[in-house]
C-alpha cells in the first residue's frame, strides 16, 4: 500500500510538472509573438492581441477557450468562413503532386484557375498574372498600365487603400502612408471621392455630389495632361476608407472619361471581390468592364496568400510578340491556386454571392432599427456584406465621434467602444469613428443578430457623447 501511495505521488508530481511546463511554454509562445515579431500598423509595446488557438465557422477561439465572433472576416477576406476542411484537402492533394515549380512552367491548376477567372470576371477580361497578394497585384497593374500606354501618371482617390508596397501605399490615400511620404512613388495624382455624406462640394444629394466629382476628375485629367495619364485606379467598391458609396452612374462616367482620353481603367477588387458585395465583383454592381482588374483576399478566402491581375484580351494581345517585363518567384504558386479553385467551387456550390446580397439586405434592415435607438449612428453605408457605421456626436452637424486620422490619444470614446466590442467577444475593424460590418458570407441571421447586439451595447457608450 505504501508503494502504491508512493507511485500515486510520483504520478501526480509528474502531471503537475507537465501542466506547469505547458503553462510555461504557452506563456513563452505568446511572449515570443511580442518579443520576436512585428505587428502591423501599431506601436510595438503595450499591445494586447487576441491569442488565437483555433478558428471555426465565424468564430475565433483564444487560449482560454473564449470565442470571438468574427464580424469583419478578419481583414474582409475570410469569405467562406474559417476551418473549411475542403480547402485543407485540396491543398494536401495538390502538394502530393506539385508543391512548387518555377512560374516559367505550366501546371494544370494554374490553367484551370486562369480559365475560371476569365469565366467569372466581367466582359473581355481574359488573361491573368498571379501575385502573392493584393498590393503586389495593384503594383503590377500600375507597371503594366505605364508600359502599355507609354504614359506615366496615375489618378486615384484620396480616400482609398490599395496596399502597402511603395507603389501602392503611394497610390492609396490612407494617411498611414504619411510617415513614409518622402519615399513615395512619383506621378500619382489624387482626387476627391464622391463622398455624399460629407461631400467636398457641399452637394445636396449623392447624384449631385457624383456629378461634381466627375467634373473635378475631368478637370484634373486636363490639368495633368491627358497624354500623360496612363490609368485611373479605383476600388470596385470602397472598403476601409469608409465604404463610401458610389452614385449609380459614377463608375460608368469614369470609364467614359478613360475611353475619351485613351486612359486605362484599373479596378481594385481586392476587398470587394468574390461575392463580398452581393455580386461576383463590386464592379458588377455598376455594369462596367475595366481594362485591368486586381484581386486577392477572397480569392483564397485568406487560407493561403494569392493575388491576381487580369487584363482584357486587347492588352493581352499587345504582349504576344514582345516580352512581358513582370515577374515574381511565387507567381501562380500551385498550392495557392488549388486553394483558390476550391474557394470558388464552394462559393458557387453554396450560392454565397446570392447569399451575400440577401444577408446584406437583412443587415441593412436591422441597422435601421438600431438608428432609432442610437443617436450616435450618423450613417450606414453598405453593399452586400461590405458595410460601415459612421458615428457622430450630432446628426445635424455630423461632428465625428473621433477625427479623421485620429491618433490613439484622440480616439476618446471610440477607444472605449472598441474595447467594449472586444470584451463582449467580437473581432471587427474599428477605425477612427467607423465600425465595420463585413462578416463571412456563411454567417446566419442568428449570428448577425448576436453581432449587432454586441455593437448596440457598445454604442450606448458612444451615445453618451451625443448632443
Query: Can you give the mean pLDDT?
Result: 95
Q: Biggest β-sheet, characterized?
A: 7 strands, mixed
User: Stretches where pLDDT falls below 50 for ≥5 residues?
Assistant: none
Reading the helices and strands in chain order gives HEEEHHHEHEHEHEHEEEHHHEEEHEEEH
In the residues, how many domains can be counted?
2
Overall spatial form: globular
**What is the rounded distance between the termini?**
77 Å
- What is the CATH T-level topology of the largest domain? Aspartate Aminotransferase, domain 2
Number of strands: 16
Q: How helix-rich are the residues, as a percent range? A: 40-55%
Strand line-up across the major sheet = 4-10-9-8-7-5-6
The CATH architecture assignment of the largest domain turns out to be 3-Layer(aba) Sandwich
What does the model show?
With 467 residues, this protein is an alpha/beta fold. It has two domains: 52-83 and 351-463, Aspartate Aminotransferase, domain 1, CATH 3.90.1150.10; 85-349, Type I PLP-dependent aspartate aminotransferase-like (Major domain) (Aspartate Aminotransferase, domain 2). It has 13 helices and 16 strands. The strands form three sheets. Strands 4-10-9-8-7-5-6 form a seven-stranded mixed β-sheet, sandwiched between helices. β15 and β16 form a beta hairpin. The radius of gyration is 24 Å and the shape is globular.
Amino acid at each position: 500500500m505504501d508503494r502504491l501511495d508512493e507511485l500515486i505521488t510520483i504520478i501526480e508530481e509528474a502531471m503537475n510538472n507537465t501542466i506547469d511546463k505547458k503553462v510555461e511554454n504557452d506563456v513563452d509562445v505568446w511572449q515570443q509573438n511580442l518579443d520576436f515579431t512585428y505587428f502591423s500598423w501599431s506601436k510595438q509595446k503595450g499591445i494586447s492581441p487576441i491569442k488565437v488557438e483555433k478558428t471555426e465557422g465565424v468564430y475565433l477561439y483564444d487560449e482560454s477557450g473564449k470565442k470571438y465572433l468574427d464580424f469583419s472576416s478578419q481583414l474582409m477576406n475570410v469569405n467562406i468562413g474559417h476551418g473549411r476542411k475542403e480547402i485543407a484537402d485540396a491543398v494536401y492533394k495538390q502538394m502530393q503532386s506539385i508543391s512548387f515549380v518555377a512560374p516559367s512552367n505550366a501546371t494544370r491548376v494554374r490553367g484551370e484557375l486562369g480559365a475560371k477567372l476569365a469565366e467569372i470576371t466581367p466582359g473581355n477580361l481574359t488573361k491573368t498574372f498571379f501575385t502573392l497578394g493584393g498590393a503586389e497585384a495593384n503594383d503590377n497593374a500600375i507597371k503594366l498600365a505605364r508600359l502599355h500606354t507609354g504614359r506615366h501618371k496615375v489618378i486615384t482617390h484620396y480616400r482609398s487603400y490599395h496596399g502597402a508596397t511603395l507603389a501602392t501605399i503611394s497610390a492609396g490615400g490612407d494617411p498611414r502612408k504619411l510617415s513614409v511620404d518622402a519615399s513615395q512613388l512619383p506621378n500619382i495624382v489624387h482626387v476627391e471621392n464622391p463622398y455624399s455624406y460629407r461631400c467636398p462640394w457641399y452637394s445636396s444629394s449623392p447624384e449631385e455630389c457624383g456629378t461634381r466629382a466627375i467634373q473635378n476628375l475631368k478637370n484634373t485629367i486636363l490639368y495633368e495632361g491627358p497624354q500623360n495619364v496612363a490609368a485611373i485606379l479605383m476600388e470596385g467598391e470602397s472598403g476601409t476608407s469608409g465604404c463610401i458609396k458610389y452614385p449609380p452612374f459614377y463608375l460608368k462616367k469614369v470609364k467614359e472619361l478613360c475611353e475619351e482620353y485613351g486612359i486605362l481603367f484599373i479596378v481594385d477588387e481586392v476587398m470587394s471581390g468574390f461575392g463580398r458585395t452581393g455580386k461576383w465583383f463590386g464592379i458588377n454592381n455598376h455594369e462596367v468592364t475595366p481594362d485591368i482588374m486586381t484581386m486577392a483576399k477572397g480569392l483564397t478566402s485568406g487560407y493561403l496568400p494569392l493575388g491576381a491581375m487580369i487584363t482584357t484580351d486587347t492588352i493581352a494581345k499587345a504582349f504576344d510578340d514582345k516580352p512581358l517585363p513582370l515577374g515574381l518567384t511565387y507567381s501562380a504558386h500551385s498550392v495557392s491556386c488549388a486553394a483558390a479553385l476550391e474557394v470558388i467551387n464552394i462559393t458557387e456550390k453554396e450560392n454565397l454571392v446570392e447569399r451575400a446580397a440577401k444577408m446584406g439586405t437583412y443587415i441593412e434592415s436591422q441597422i435601421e432599427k438600431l438608428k432609432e435607438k442610437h443617436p450616435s449612428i450618423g450613417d450606414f453605408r453598405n453593399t452586400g456584406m461590405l458595410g460601415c457605421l459612421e458615428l457622430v456626436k450630432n446628426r445635424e452637424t455630423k461632428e465625428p465621434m473621433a477625427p479623421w486620422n485620429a491618433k490613439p490619444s484622440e480616439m476618446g470614446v471610440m477607444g472605449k467602444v472598441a474595447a467594449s466590442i472586444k470584451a463582449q467577444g467580437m473581432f471587427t475593424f474599428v477605425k477612427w469613428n467607423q465600425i465595420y460590418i463585413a462578416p463571412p458570407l456563411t454567417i446566419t441571421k442568428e449570428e448577425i443578430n448576436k453581432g449587432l447586439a454586441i455593437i448596440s451595447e457598445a454604442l450606448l457608450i458612444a451615445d453618451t457623447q451625443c448632443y
